[in-house]
Amino acid sequence: MSPPVQKVISSQQLPKKVDVVVIGGGIAGVSTAFFLARKGVSVALCEKGEIGAEQSSRNWGWCRTLSRDPRELPLAIESLRLWRRMNEMTGRETGFRQCGILSLCATEAELADARRADDEGRLYQSDAKMIGADEIRSLVPGTVKPWLGAHFAPSDGRAEPALAAPAIAESARDAGAYILTGCAVRGVETTAGAVSGVVTEKGAIACQSVVLAGGVCWRASPGMARRPSPSAR
C-alpha cells in the first residue's frame, strides 16, 4: 500500500484574473505552476481533487533517461538536472535521490535493444553505459542469474511520489501561485478565437493561456471534451 500523500492546503481566494491557468495538480501541473510563478507569471492551478492524489502518487517515482524514446532524451536530461536541485529550489523534501537505474538483459534480444538505446543516448551526451557481469554483481549483490549484460544510467534516480508533487505545489504557492484544490474546471472560454478564461465549479477566472495537465481526467468534463488537444509525452 502506498504511503499517504501529503495534503496541500488550498488557497482560500479564487482570483478574478491571472496570466495562466494550469488544469491538473499532478507532477506536471504543479511543476508548471512552480516555474511560472518563479518567473513572476501570475498563475492559478485548478485541481478537481487533491494535489498529487492520482497517478502522480501511484508510481515508482523514477526520474530517468534510461529506456526513453530518443526524442524524449533532451527533455529527460534537462529534467534530471532540475531534479538534482529540486530540494534546494523548493526548500522542501521531494525524496529525490540520484541512485542510478539499471536495466538487466536476460536474452540476446534484450541485449541488442539495450545496445541500440546506448548508441542513441550517446548522441545526446547521456552518461548511460553498457556493463558486464562483474559490474552487475557489484551493483546487485546476491544476484545468481547469469545476466548477459545491462544498461546502467548512474545519473538517473527517483523522487518520492507521496512527497514530490505536494512539496512543489507548496513552493509554487510561496512564489505567488494560487493552488486551488476541489476546484474542477468545467470549460475554457474564448473570445475572438483566443483563450479568455476558464469556468470552474467555484467561479470564473479570466486568463490569457491555459495549460492542460490533467492527464486523461480532463476529458471527463463535457465542456472540455469537445476541444481537440494534442498530447505531449
How do the helices and strands line up, and which of them pair or pack?
Blueprint: E1 20-23, H1 27-38, E2 43-47, E3 62-63, H2 73-83, H3 86-90, E4 101-105, H4 108-122, E5 129-131, H5 133-139, E6 149-153, E7 157-158, H6 161-174, E8 178-181, E9 185-191, E10 194-200, E11 203-206, E12 209-212, H7 222-225
Helix pairs in contact: 1-6
User: What's the CATH first level of the largest domain?
Assistant: Alpha Beta
**What is the helical fraction, as a range of percent?**
25-40%
Query: How many H/I helical runs?
Result: 7
For the biggest β-sheet, the strand order reads 8-2-1-12
Describe the structure.
This protein has 233 residues and is of the alpha/beta class. The chain folds into 2 domains: 20-59 and 180-225, FAD/NAD(P)-binding domain (3-Layer(bba) Sandwich); 62-158, 2-Layer Sandwich (D-Amino Acid Oxidase, Chain A, domain 2), CATH 3.30.9. It has 7 helices and 12 strands. It has helices at 27-38, 73-83, 86-90, 108-122, 133-139, 161-174, 222-225, and strands at 20-23, 43-47, 62-63, 101-105, 129-131, 149-153, 157-158, 178-181, 185-191, 194-200, 203-206, 209-212. A 4-stranded parallel sheet has the order 8-2-1-12, covered by helices on one side. It has a 3-stranded antiparallel sheet with strand order 4-6-5. β1 (20-23), α1 and β2 (43-47) form a beta-alpha-beta unit. α1 (27-38) runs parallel beside α6. The chain is elongated. The two termini are 28 Å apart. The relative contact order is 0.25. The model has no long low-confidence stretch (mean pLDDT 92).
